[in-house]
Design brief:
The complex is a heterodimer of chains A (315) and B (230). Chain A has 315 residues and is mainly β. Chain A is built from 5 helices and 17 strands. The longest helix of chain A is centred in the first third of the chain and has 16 residues, at 21-36. Chain A is globular. Chain B is an all-alpha fold and 230 residues long. Chain B has helices at 2-9, 15-24, 33-57, 66-73, 82-90, 100-125, 141-144, 154-158, 192-214; strands at residues 164-167, 179-180. In chain B, helix 3 packs across helix 6. The radius of gyration of chain B is 21 Å and the shape is globular. The chains are: A mainly beta (315), B mainly alpha (230).
Chain lengths: 315, 230
């Protein structure tokens, strides 16, 4: 039975007076200031538009300082992490620390102004993923809206996110194979956030992160290329380090790396491995004189990794 | 086709793909000899899966085809559809016994068996030598894989902080001059620690790329936690 709205009446015996006009005037004067203080917050989210929700989600780390704990589940295992994120509106510093097992931490710093950032907006990845809104979900005490990014082909995984209704922060992320099998789930258990202010600084966290935030990364031509990648995957990095060549491809959402190293003998068996959404495919390529161990690692289906490996060639 | 079978083995085949697999297995009587040989190869692969399942459950492999089990599961008798007829040829069932119910039940059975087979492949990886499950390759899984997964193989198979590793089931064609080497799937002594170390290192390197690309630190959660020093 729905609760009847209760009428608020002044307690008996109190002298209930109208507030003086000066108080009302003061309130009206302060109102614009109150509104100005919220200028830094992102625009209200259009709950029906999954692309707007996605955009909000990938931008929200530049709008809020937040800390929380989340679980990462894959293959029947669960790991808990503490995450802290601080920003000054442009630079974002994040640290990640597992709460189970041996203690260690990972810290990083990003610049949200970097034009070339590989994580693309909804408009850029819209050709490769169909966006849907799935409904309202409450996670870690925060109401959220679930969106689904379904791949348009069988060469990439699908993703589902729960976006916090108020902040736009990600509350849950699920990765699914093209056959819609869930392979990993990241979900916040607790999350505290506040809008960043002009004087908030990512410095405390950034002290543990690399000092440099380079928008332009040095890309070294290592002589290798894949002649086939799924539509939309572009080469975003290439390097050569310790005789191991690496190529990194991204479609704006998923990323995979290709590692190539010459070996004297096949010391590892060819095969595939999986941990959550990350798949590993190892095999050998050979030319007249050299055998190469090639490894494709990324958040892509096995079949994609295999086909990429088969298309590798020297330029 | 082999990709589809592999997807099935990975438990990643959709209903549409399953249908494609079954439809690709042409009727041996009406198709050309090449297609008949292909069908025979798929049938051999499928037999391997059944042996793997038997091995995994510690049951002796009876040699009975899955089709007999499926036939036993048939509860109703309706006129066969075209897909059902093809299933019949694939699993040597009389066409009169086939129904649309069969194709659904078979779909479920295929998935369950394929998943069990892929788990068996992980168990196989724990033995001293790796042999790929190639079509046409004499199946030795039931003979060589210990039925219960021994404690020795458990860390890799269960992979609490790392990966479950499955042997490659396919060779890949590649344009000259590079070729995928045959010895990749030949017998290679498996050093589990080396495999694990190599994969962890790759995933760590990939995670660094991914953290940069995604502009968030969350992909770092995918990196296996380093083992505590002994």
């Amino acid at each position: 039975m729905p609760a009847r709205p209760r009428r608020h009446s002044p307690p008996r015996g109190t002298n209930h007076r109208r507030p003086p006009a000066t108080l009302c005037g003061l309130f009206l004067c302060l109102l614009p200031l109150t509104l100005c203080a919220h200028d830094e917050r992102p625009d209200p989210i259009d709950r029906a538009d999954p692309k707007a929700l996605y955009e909000q989600m990938i931008r929200s780390p530049a709008h809020y300082n937040y800390t929380g704990t989340f679980t990462y589940e894959q293959g029947g295992n669960i790991q808990t992490f503490a995450l802290a994120s601080q920003t000054d509106g442009n630079l974002i510093a994040q640290s990640l620390e597992p709460l189970d097992g041996p203690a260690h931490s990972h810290a990083h710093r990003f610049d949200s102004r970097c034009e070339h950032r590989e994580r693309k907006g909804a408009a850029q990845i819209g050709d490769y993923y169909n966006f849907y809104t799935r409904g309202e979900v409450r996670i870690a005490g925060h109401p959220g809206i679930e969106i689904a990014l379904a791949p348009v082909d069988k060469y990439r995984n699908g993703f589902q996110y729960v976006v916090a209704a108020e902040s736009g922060l990600m509350l849950r992320a699920i990765a699914l194979t093209p056959g819609r099998k869930m392979v990993e789930r990241t979900q916040f258990v607790s999350l505290d956030y506040r809008p960043h202010t002009a004087d908030s600084s990512p410095a405390p966290l950034a002290s543990r992160a690399p000092a440099q935030v380079a928008c332009e990364r040095l890309r070294i031509d290592n002589g290798w290329a894949a002649s086939w990648t799924p539509d939309g995957f572009k080469l975003v990095d290439s390097s050569l380090q310790d005789d191991r060549a690496a190529l990194v491809y991204s479609d704006g959402l998923a990323t995979f790396s290709v590692f190539i190293e010459s070996v004297l003998e096949s010391f590892l068996p060819a095969g595939t491995a999986r941990r959550g959404a990350t798949t590993v495919y190892l095999n050998y390529l050979a030319d007249e004189s050299t055998t190469y161990l090639v490894s494709v690692v990324g958040e892509i289906p096995f079949a994609t990794a295999e086909r990429v490996l088969a298309s590798l060639h020297r330029r | 086709m082999r990709e589809l079978l592999s997807a099935l083995a990975d438990g990643e085949a959709s209903d549409g793909e399953l249908r494609q697999i079954l439809q690709s297995c042409a009727d041996p009587e009406e198709a050309d000899p090449e297609a008949a040989r292909e069908t025979e190869k798929y049938r051999a692969t499928w037999a391997n899966y059944q042996r793997a399942r038997a091995a995994l459950r510690g049951e002796p492999h009876s040699g009975a085809d899955l089709s007999e089990q499926v036939a036993a599961a048939i509860a109703q008798d309706r006129p066969p559809n075209r897909l059902a007829v093809r299933i019949g040829h694939l699993f040597r069932l009389p066409a009169t016994a086939l129904t649309q119910t069969l194709s659904q039940k078979l779909g479920q059975a295929l998935r369950q068996t394929a998943i069990a087979a892929s788990v068996a492949a992980v168990a196989l990886f724990g033995i001293g030598h790796y042999q790929g499950m190639q079509p046409g390759h004499t199946p030795t899984l039931a003979a060589t894989a210990p039925a219960p997964v021994s404690n020795d193989t458990a860390p890799l198979a269960q992979a609490p902080a790392g990966f479950a590793f499955q042997p490659a089931t396919r060779t890949v064609s590649s344009p000259a001059p590079l070729r995928v080497t045959d010895r990749a799937t030949a017998q290679i002594p498996v050093d589990r620690a080396a495999v694990r170390f190599h994969i962890d290192e790759l995933v760590r390197a990939h995670s660094d790329h991914s953290v940069q690309a995604a502009q968030e630190v969350l992909p770092a959660a995918r990196v296996p936690v380093p083992a505590a020093p002994d």
